[in-house]
Structure formats: C-alpha cells, structure tokens
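Record 1 of the preview.
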Amino acid sequence: MDEKSSTRKGPGFCSLRYGLALIMHFSNFTMITQRVSLSIAIIAMVNSTEQQNISNVSTEGPLADTLNNPSRSIKEFNTGASVYEWSPETQGIIFSSINYGIILTLIPSGYLAGIFGAKHMLGAGLLISSLLTLFTPLAANFGVILVIAIRTVQGMAQGMAWTGQFTIWAKWAPPLERSKLTSIAGSGVAFGSFIILCVGGLICQALGWPFIFYIFGSIGCVCCLLWFTVIYDDPMHHPCISVREREHIVSSLAQKPGSPRRSVPIKAMVRCLPLWAIFMGFFSHFWLCTITITYLPTYVSSVLHVNIRDSGVLSSLPFIAASSCTILGGQLADFLLSRNLRLITVRKLFSSLGLLLPSVCAMTLPFVTSSYMTTVILLILIPGTSNLCDSGFIINTLDIAPRYSSFLMGISRGFGLIAGIISSTATGFLISQNSESGWRNVFFLSAAVNMFGLVFYLTFAQAKIQGWAREENLTRL
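->
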C-alpha cells in the first residue's frame, strides 16, 4: 500500500527535482545568452561599416561621423569599440561555426556522460563556454578567423553541457513528470534568448558591444559555482533529498542496479525507424529555430528598419511566447497523460503543432511586411509554437530508450545542428543575393523542411521502449 502511494504521488513543486529543473533552467539560460550574444552584437559590430564603406577589416576607435545619420540611432559606436567589415556570407559562417563545435562533441559527450556521470562534464562545458565568451571581444580584434575558432571551441564546450542533461533526467524524472521537468529546464533557452535580445541592444548603446560578452560570460562563471554545488547525477547520492522523494523517484522509474559500462547497440539503432523519426524531427525543428535565433535581429533591423535598441527589444518578444509555450506545453502534455491519453498520441500531437504552426507563420511573413503589427505577431508566434515540440519528439528518446537517452540525445542534436549549419549558411547566401526575395526563399524552404520532418515522424514514431533498449537485452556491436 505504501509503495503504491509513493509511486503515485510524491513531493510536488517544493521538491529537490524541481529545484534541479530550475538550476538546469538557469544553466540553459546562461548558455543560450552566450550563444546568441553575437547575433545582437554583430549589428553594432558591422553596421557602421556598411554606412561608411570602409575597406579595412577593422577600424579602431570611435566613429564620430556615424552620428550624422540620426535615424539609425547608433550611439553605441561612441564607446570606442572596434567595428568590422563582415559580409553576410562571413556572418553566416561565424553564426554556424558554433554548431560545428557542438557536433564534434555531442555524440562522445553523451556516451561518456552515461558512463562517468553528467555533473562534471556539464559543469566543465559551461565553464569553458563562459571563459571563451569573455575572450570573444579580444578575439575579434585579431581577425575573423580567430572568432570562428573561438566559436567552434565554444560550441564543443556547449555540446558537452547540452547533451548530458538527459542522463540526469533519466534518473531524476518520474515518467508522469518528464514533460514538466524537461520543459522547465528547457524553457531557459527561450527565456535566455528573450533576455539577451531585449537588453543586448541597450547594452550596446550604453556600454558598447563588448560588454554583452563580458556580462553574460561572468554570469556563466557564477552559474558554474551553483551547478557544482547543487547538481548530482542521481537521487541516490544527493545529500539533501528527502527519503520520501527518493523513494518516489526510484519506485516510479523501477530502477535496477547494473553496470555503468554497457555496450551500445549501434546496429539496432541504425535499423530503428522510430529513432530515425526523432532524428528527422530534430533536423526539421532546428532548421527554423536556428534561423530564428540567429537571424531574427538582422531581419527585424533590415525589414522593419529599426535601430539596434528597438531591434533587440522586438527580437526578444517572440521568446516570451516561446518560454511560456514550453512550460505550458509540458504541463498540458502531462495532464493529457494523466487522463489516460496514449503516450504516442501526445507525442505526435505536440510534434505536429510544433512543426506545422510555425511553418504556416513563416510562409505568411513575406506577404505581410507592409503591416508592422502583423509581422511582429507572426514573429512572436514562430518560436512560441515551435517550442511545443519540447513535449513531442524532443523527449521521445526518454520513452523509447531511457538507458541510452543521453547518447541518443547527442545524436539527435547532431542532426539538428547539421540542419543549423546548413540553414545559417544558406540564409546568409540567400539574403546576400537579394534581400526581399532572399527572405521569402528562406521562409519557404524552412516550411518545406518542417513538413518533411513532420510527415516522417507521424509515419514512424513510437513511444514504447524498443527491444534493444531494455535492461535485460544487451545487444553488442
């Protein structure tokens, strides 16, 4: 009787596992601000160069004559920060370079996190990313090659930090709370994007663009201290967890003792269509998300013709909706599951909403640029509705292969980041040819990719544990 009660309910929001979700939320917040900081700073880093037609790679010191054009409102260049001549193609390479780094570490870090524990790997990745963020303004003065190198290494560090989170949730999240906990943690990405885009332009004007990197790099270093202090790999070893909560988590997960050194059934994974459905979902989702996060400030600045301060504020608004939809989607998903709706139905429902709705909004954007308010509303809806995927295929690996969730999350994000690299580079190329038709092609292509991923996922997705992922079935290479 007691065991059943423990399984069915445990401590709620005032519990350690929700505290860990908040810490992970803050960590995700920190990493995304460090990643997106360049997207808002680059408007100040290159904008004056476009007006002055400067031929040098960089110009030191303030550019006083940029004040002659008050409509641009670029007081930020009075701060003495350097300004660079980086073409849209070069900017696309810089934006995508962090994805190259993440790809290099996603799969090995996911596998190693499952063996050695995620706490130290994630903490080290967060610390390295924070230190490199602090170094970015200095790297820019040495040339674009060093900036690309710094961003690539930073991507490797963030790849270590992103992937291991699911190793922790595989041991901390009861099945009926997975959507809630992962959505609380994951909403840090949207909230961080909102904050950096909202205040980034203000920081540029008041202090200069280098301080975007100094401020959020320092916040990351503080977050590392919190991470190493509070986070533990599993509830069995946490010194502050209550007995009731520990028993609730362990009984709900039906944990079994086993050796952490396990073989990975690669061949079975390659032949698993439900797993490929998740991979295609990630590829489609990250294609549009990367464009939104990376190029939204540029789109707002060039299409709506606003200054850097207002560009940052407008670019931040969509991520309010994204953060809210992530949390609310997780709550709704677990509510539907508690009402005995099939797990696969819930996963497909939220995946459909998260891929179809932003595609419709993206295809509509090129036709409403004359309406300021309609454009802003659509820009808000794209990230908001897209984040409903967090309760769909994003956490589907926890359903079909919880033992390998971290390793598979690394591969899944690898597919997503490949999409991010291609979409960032393609976007830079398309808008450099012709701004108006270029943006239209960018959004139509994104919608087509989303539809491909949705059809593939709806066709092959499952939510039951696969045979090769069961504890008693150890398939070797």
